[in-house]
């Protein structure tokens, strides 16, 4: 019998390979003391067959203390020959090639070795106890492996059902491990991803990179520096111009020496939740503004009317000098501006009952373009209009929808240079009547997109920041939705979508909004 070492993977997993072909250990046991049942387990159990050469129990030599009735009965149940001396056992079974002492007391080992032929190996009592220890270690390892496999299965099931990206990184931002969600999303195998930098596996919908370098504001950088948990809210703009929100968490992973070895990163897409939260916040602001409007109407507008009346009366006086008359005109103009501001606020927050009727979106667009051609098309803009035939009617109010589209087109004209093209398209898709206004103007930054529907926020030198919020309010009153897509330097697209009037719909009615 010889053994060889597998040197193909030195330093990884080195195993002793037995060249056993037709060889087996034919065992004779000396005694039934400590370690007896362990040796029997090693011989009979199939779980050890992958690690040991074939083992077969041939015979047993019983010592004087082995004659207890219960022990003798157990040994006889093994159906192997029993002897009172090892010499007799070897004479009767010359095929035995391994003698094992498990008597519980020491035979005269040196005498046995001298008497044994070269073809028979001998494990004395101390060596047998050592094998018993190895057996116990194997049993413990087997139980640990079962527990580990069970916990691994549970962990894989939990992580596999988590829809967030989970990455395990080393201190150089390279991927050590990842969950299936990352691999499925970027359509690569784990083997292709492991070892690459994290920015090679983190991507936006559509496949564009989530980031392209080490960012000092990234939670991973913070964790590597502080060795503590970190998190951050990160915004990105998708390829189609939608604003996306992500919450990124990083957790330090320490080795047995207490040193930071790896960083666990989890990226969660919270876009849908954040949009809902922002809409709820905007509605709450509008509710507060509606309550304030009553106060403004009573406490501010009435004094303004008084001031306006007195200024107009003074302007009619023949006793004023031209200098005094000029100052009173300024007061009158500024009073008018204040009244206009107040009127915008009241129009925005007032919740009057509106009579909804059947509206043809194509007609809304046509009449809006006529208004633009008469009063606003002063910079040579061109309009590319595609109106789909036979689209369903929607429930709304013609004048309000014209004002919404007019405001969006005005924004597009202001965002584009003279002579630029603006696209207006209507259609019906997925049970929605829609109109799309698109330009290739300056576009909007992430911060501008985020604040676009916030009341009183504006990037213009003139205006009160009520354009898009007012449009959203009107559209939602008609049961519609507004979608904004924009990219800096690329352009902006605004889509209004409404449910169509079905044949079974009741006739238009007065709705409270």
Note the topology.
Blueprint: E1 3-5, E2 16-18, E3 25-30, H1 36-44, E4 55-61, H2 69-76, E5 82-83, H3 86-92, E6 98-101, H4 109-115, E7 121-123, H5 125-161, E8 165-170, E9 175-178, H6 180-186, H7 190-193, H8 219-226, E10 230-237, E11 243-254, E12 260-269, H9 271-315, H10 322-349, E13 353-355, E14 357-359, H11 361-375, E15 382-386, E16 394-396, H12 398-414, E17 421-429, E18 432-439, H13 446-451, H14 467-477, E19 481-487, E20 491-498, E21 510-512
Parallel strand pairs: 3-4, 3-6, 4-5, 6-7, 15-17
Antiparallel strand pairs: 1-2, 8-9, 8-12, 10-11, 11-12, 13-21, 14-16, 17-18, 18-20, 19-20
Number of helices: 14
How far the N terminus sits from the C terminus, by CA atoms, comes to 94 Å
**Proportion of β residues?**
15-25%
Strand arrangement, major sheet = 5-4-3-6-7
Q: What is the oligomer described by this structure?
A: single chain
Q: Which structural class should the secondary elements be placed in?
A: alpha/beta
Shape: rod-shaped
Sheet having the most strands: 5 strands, parallel
Portion of residues within helices: 40-55%
Low confidence ranges: 1-13, 461-465, 503-513
Task: Round the mean pLDDT to the nearest integer and report it.
Answer: 78
Give the number of DSSP strands: 21
Radius of gyration: 43 Å
Account of the protein in words:
This protein is α/β, with parallel strands linked by helices and 513 residues long. The protein is built from 14 helices and 21 strands. The strands form six sheets. Strands 5-4-3-6-7 form a five-stranded parallel beta sheet. Strand 11 (243-254) and strand 12 (260-269) form a beta hairpin. The longest helix has 45 residues, at 271-315. The protein is rod-shaped and about 145 Å long.
């Amino acid at each position: 019998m010889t053994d060889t070492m597998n040197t193909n993977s030195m330093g990884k997993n080195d195993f002793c390979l037995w060249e056993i072909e037709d060889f087996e250990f034919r065992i004779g046991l000396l005694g039934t003391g400590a370690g007896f049942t362990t040796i029997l387990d090693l011989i009979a159990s199939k779980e050890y067959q992958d690690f040991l050469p074939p083992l077969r129990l041939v015979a047993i030599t019983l010592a004087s203390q082995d004659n207890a009735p219960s022990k003798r009965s157990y040994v006889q149940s093994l159906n192997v020959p029993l002897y009172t001396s090892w010499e007799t056992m070897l004479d009767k079974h010359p095929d035995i090639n391994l003698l094992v002492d498990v008597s519980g007391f020491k035979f005269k080992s040196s005498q046995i070795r001298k008497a044994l032929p070269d073809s028979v190996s001998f494990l004395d009592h101390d060596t047998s106890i050592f094998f018993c220890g190895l057996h116990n270690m194997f049993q413990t390892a087997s139980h640990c492996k079962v527990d580990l496999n069970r916990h691994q299965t549970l962990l894989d099931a939990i992580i596999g059902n988590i829809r967030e990206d989970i990455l395990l990184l080393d201190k150089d931002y390279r991927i050590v491990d990842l969950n299936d969600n990352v691999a499925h999303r970027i359509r690569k195998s784990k083997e292709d991803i492991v070892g690459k930098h994290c920015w090679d596996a983190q991507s936006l919908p559509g496949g564009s990179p989530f980031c392209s370098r080490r960012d000092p504001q990234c939670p991973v950088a913070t964790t590597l520096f502080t060795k503590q948990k970190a998190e951050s809210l990160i915004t990105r703009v998708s390829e189609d111009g939608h604003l996306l929100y992500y919450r990124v968490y990083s957790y330090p992973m320490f080795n047995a020496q207490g040193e930071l070895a790896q960083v666990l990163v989890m990226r969660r897409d919270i876009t849908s939740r954040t949009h809902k939260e922002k809409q709820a916040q905007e509605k709450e602001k509008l509710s507060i503004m509606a309550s304030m409007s009553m106060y403004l109407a009573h406490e501010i507008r009435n004094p303004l009317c008084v001031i306006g009346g007195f200024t107009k009366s003074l302007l009619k006086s023949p006793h004023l000098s031209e200098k005094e008359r000029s100052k009173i005109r300024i007061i009158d103009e500024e009073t008018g501006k204040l009244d206009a501001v107040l009127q915008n606020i009241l129009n925005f927050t007032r919740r009057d009952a509106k009579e909804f009727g059947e509206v043809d979106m194509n007609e809304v667009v046509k009449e809006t373009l006529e208004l633009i051609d008469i009063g606003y098309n002063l910079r040579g803009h061109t309009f590319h209009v595609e109106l789909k035939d036979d689209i369903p009617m929607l429930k709304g109010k013609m004048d309000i929808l014209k004002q919404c589209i007019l405001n969006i087109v005005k924004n597009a004209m202001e965002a584009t240079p003279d002579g630029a093209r603006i696209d207006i398209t209507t259609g019906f898709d997925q049970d929605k009547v829609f109109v799309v206004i698109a330009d290739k103007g300056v576009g909007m930054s992430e911060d501008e997109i985020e604040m676009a529907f916030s009341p009183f926020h504006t990037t213009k030198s003139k205006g009160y920041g009520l354009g898009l919020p007012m449009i959203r309010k009107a559209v939602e009153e008609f049961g519609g939705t507004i979608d904004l897509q924009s990219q800096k330097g690329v352009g902006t697209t605004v889509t209004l979508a409404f449910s169509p009037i079905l044949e079974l719909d009741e006739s238009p009615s007065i709705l409270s909004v």
